[in-house]
Amino acid sequence: xxxxxxxxxxxxxxxxxxxxxxxxxxxxxxxxxxxxxxxxxxxxxxxxxxxxxxxxxxxxxxxxxxxxxxxxxxxxxxxxxxxxxxxxxxxxxxxxxxxxxxxxxxxxxxxxxxxxxxxxxxxxxxxxxxxxxxxxxxxxxxxxxxxxxxxxxxxxxxxxxxxxxxxxxxxxxxxxxxxxxxxxxxxxxxxxxxxxxxxxxxxxxxxxxxxxxxxxxxxxxxxxxxxxxxxxxxxxxxxxxxxxxxxxxxxxxxxxxxxxxxxxxxxxxxxxxxxxxxxxxxxxxxxxxxxxxxxxxxxxxxxxxxxxxxxxxxxxxxxxxxxxxxxxxxxxxxxxxxxxxxxxxxxxxxxxxxxxxxxxxxxxxxxxxxxxxxxxxxxxxxxxxxxxxxxxxxxxxxxxxxxxxxxxxxxxxxxxxxxxxxxxxxxxxxxxxxxxxxxxxxxxxxxxxxxxxxxxxxxxxxxxxxxxxxxxxxxxxxxxxxxxxxx
Length: 487
Known about the structure:
Elements: H1 8-16, E1 25-29, E2 43-50, E3 56-63, E4 74-78, H2 87-93, E5 97-105, E6 108-113, E7 123-127, E8 137-138, E9 146-147, H3 148-165, E10 174-179, H4 182-198, E11 207-213, H5 219-232, H6 238-247, H7 260-273, H8 318-321, H9 330-340, H10 343-349, E12 374-375, E13 378-379, H11 386-392, E14 397-404, H12 412-420, E15 425-426, E16 432-436, E17 439-449, E18 452-459, H13 466-469, H14 471-482
Parallel strand pairs: 4-7, 4-10, 9-13, 10-11, 11-14, 14-18
Antiparallel strand pairs: 1-2, 2-3, 3-7, 3-8, 5-6, 12-13, 15-17, 16-17, 17-18
GO molecular function, one term: acyltransferase activity, transferring groups other than amino-acyl groups
Keywords: Carboxypeptidase, Glycoprotein, Hydrolase, Protease, Signal
Signal peptide: 1-25
């Protein structure tokens, strides 16, 4: 978009929002369409303006801890994409509610409580960021386009303003958390908050660390690791793996298109994995053929469709779904889209009228695909965030990095590779099993350097968005970590 100009829907939204409406917004939501009773937890929604003239209005859901809100950590969860609405986390990953598939109430999908909600042990902010994600919007056309660096700065500004507006939580331990593409910005936001404290920005925030789930971190390295991962899990042969490494000079992601032998190897690799679900290799494959180089972050296919014109398929109950290998996981998300676009839902959440024409699970104008420097509404201007992890190793800081071990999108292989570049010391665990309900939940390695500590854990059987696949294991893992106990 050319600076100073706006087009179509965005212009209409901007005209409908006057600057006089941009007052501090906090709404206590006591009931939600689809749930039959008053909410048994405290839910607040609202907007906080960030950036120049606060032209970016970020929408959030805040759930106070159901444990001890005055002492439990304050965390922010970023859904990734970039551009994916945080309702994905609220309903499918770490939130207090789930959708009851196949059931309706108040003309929207019915809701139920999630027994593994992270809100049982933490105060959780679910943020629609960057702008034009979920219910977030802008008041000027210049603010529409975002980037990795802009998003990180604006989210850090959001957190400082949030505790300013909620002084009760100033002393709570603060952690920056999220999943997938958010791995690029999480360490950037965390360092920005530490740096702001050093510079005397007010209020001082009690930042203590960060957490990333299957985090995209070093874009080239993470993409390259898909080849090794595919070999390790027996999707390609040893001969093909070794030939590709040799012919491509060890660089699969940045291969020379004039290198014919390398290109032929890559084509053969992609042929072998084309029918594999890159986000969870054991799930049915419902998307276009997997391409290990060009596959970006997980986006829902057909996410722009108008549901009123294309009604979603009636789903059976979850207990039936888990044995139905022909069902596509993406169809779950259609329920969230239907719920979020309901007028009564928007009214209950106090979404500002005229700011969002249609809620999308993910904004496709921000969709990340390796090799593209930008999209119409987002610039991918940070290739690797490892340097920010390195800066944080000099801080009094804790980190938890976890990976679903069935994820080929951002494989644990690449994640451990960049962790190894931090030159940390392995302490009491080196690929040791941890247990949840008496069963092996995955493997953990603990690292440290001076006042910095990092735990890396795999989640056995989980895919790219690990808490979605293994909610009990992920909940128990973070519960222990928040409490400073071995996971």
